[in-house]
Amino acid sequence: MARPDPRWWDTAVVYQVYPRSFADSDGDGVGDLAGVTSRLDHLAGLGIDAIWLSPFYPSPLADGGYDIVDHRAVDPRLGTLDDVDDLIAAAHRRGIRLIVDIVPNHTSDQHPWFREALASPAGSSARDRYIFRDGRGEEPPSDWRSHFGGSAWERVGDGQWYCHLFAREQPDLDWSNPEVREHFHGVIRFWADRGVDGFRVDAAHTLAKDLTEPLRSQPRLSRALPLDGTDPLYDRDEVHSIFEGWRAVFDEYDPPRMAVAETWSPRNERSYLYARPTELGQVFDFSLLKARWGLEEFRRVIEDSLSGHRAAGLLPTWVLSNHDVPRHASRLALDPDADPDAWLLSGGTAPRIDPERGARRARAATLLMLALPGSAYLYQGEELGLPKVADLPTAVLQDPVWFRSGGTVKGRDGCRVPLPWTRTGPSLGFGTGGSWLPQPPGFGRLSVAAQEGVSGSSLTLYREALRLRRRFDAADPRIEWHDGEPGMLRLVRADGLCCVVNFASEPRPLPPGELLLASAPVEAGHLPSESAAWLLRQRSTA
Ligand code: NOJ
Fold first, then answer.
1. Residue 505: how many CA atoms within 13 Å on its side-chain side?
2. Which end of the chain is more exposed for a tag (fewer CB within 10 A), N or C?
3. Per-residue model confidence as pLDDT tens digits over 334-345
4. pLDDT at residue 541 above 70?
5. pTM, whole model, 2 decimals?
6. Quick check: CB of 166 below 6 Å from ligand 1?
7. How far is CA 438 from CA 389, 414, 506, in A?
C-alpha cells in the first residue's frame, strides 16, 4: 500500500498512461486496462508514485477519448469496470496511486444529454445543459474560435448553434446550470468510491464562460496573453466556485481526494488559485515544457515558477511531455530561433531535427526537472527516450487537429504511437496483434527489452534518477544558483543535491562534489555538452 501522506502529490512523480497506446492484452491493436495492469511491474520498477490514466470511458474517439459518452463506464474496447477495480487494487498493492481524467468542459456529441438536446426545441431544459444560441443572421453567435481550428460554433437542424471550444463532436456544457454541477459531483463520487486517489481536470480554465448577451468577442487566443479574470472564455473568476464545490466532494473521503488542473493560460498569480487547498490541490506548470533549450531560458522559467509558487505557498508541478505536445526528445532539438508557439500548437509540422541531439537534450532536461523541488509528471515512453513519430502516413491520422486544419497540421498522433516493449515480434510486444498507429522502423531498438539493465540507456537513467530522488527532499523549495563555468547551469538544493547542465558546445569540468548520476558518460571529470549531472554537494564547497 502507498504510505499515508496527506499531501503526497506535492512531491510525487506521476506517470501518464495513455491507455490506447500503452499495452494491448487482447490483440485487437488497441491498448486496454488489462494491458496496463499486466505492465505494472515496469512502472513499479521505474519507481513512480502514481499513475495518471487518460480517458478510458466510452467514446466515439473524435478526440482520442476526450469526447465522452458515459462518464461512469469503461469503453468496451478497453475493458470493464472490473478491470478498473483490478487495476486500482494491483497498483495500490505496489504502493502506486491512481489518478483518472475528468473531462468537464464538454461531452461527446453522442452523449445521451446531447442527443436529447438535439431532439428538443430551442429554449428547452435539455438544450440548457449545453450552450445553444441563435446566430447573427446566417453568422454564428460570436467570433469564438475552436482550439482545433475554425469557428467554435456548429449549426444544428433548426438553425440554432452550439458552442464547442474543441472539436464539433465535443459540445461544451453550461456550468452555470446546477444540473451539470451535480452530475460531475456524482462522477467524482463514482470513481472515488471505487478507490481512485485523484483526478486530472481537463481544460479546467474553460468551464466558466461569460454568456451574457450580446456575447463578447474573444479576439486574443494567444499563449502570450496575460489573463486577468475578465476574458469571456478563459480563467474566469467564477470557475473557482465550481472547484470549491468539488473540494467539498473530495473532502467527503478519507483520505481526501486531490486533483490537478490542466490550464494552458499563461502562468501568472491567477494560475495558482486552482491549486489552493480549498480547490483542487495542484496545477500543472507547463513553463518548462514550453521553454526552448538554452541556459537563460531554462533558468528564467525555473526561477519564475519557483518564486511564483513560493509566494502562493505551493510547490511546482513540472511537465516536459504529455499526449498533447511533441515529445521532448524531438522538441528540444529544435533550433532555438524556431517559434515555440507554432511548434506546440501545430503538434510538430517539424523543421529538421537531429535525433541524437534531441535524445541528449531530453535526458539532460529530465535530470534537471527531476532535481527540482516539487512534483513531476512523466509521459509514457519518455523513459525510453522515444521521439515524436514525425512521418506517420496521413491515412492513419486520427487527431481532430488534422481534420479541422484541412489536412495542413498533422496534430498529436505522433506522440501517441503504441509503446515498444520488445525488440521484435508483433507490435513490438505492445500486443499480440497490430497497433492502431504504426510503429516506425527502428522502434524496437528503443524498447523496454532493449534498454533493460543496459548501463547508459534512457530507461536505466530514469530508474536511477527516481531511485536517487527519494534520498532527497523535494518538498524543500530552497535552491541556490551557483555561477561557474560558462554555459553551465548549476543549482544546489538545501538538502545538498546539486544539478548541473552543460549548455555549452564543449565538455566542461564538473564542480566539486560526489557524482551521483549523469545523463552522458563523464570523462576525466568533464561533463559532455548538452548533458546533466547530479552531485552531492560537499559541505566545504557549498
Ligand atoms: C486537453 C486534453 O489533454 C486534450 O488531449 C484534449 O484534446 C482537450 N483537452 C479537449 O478535451
1. 0
2. N
3. 765 665 555 554
4. no
5. 0.96
6. yes
7. 9, 10, 38
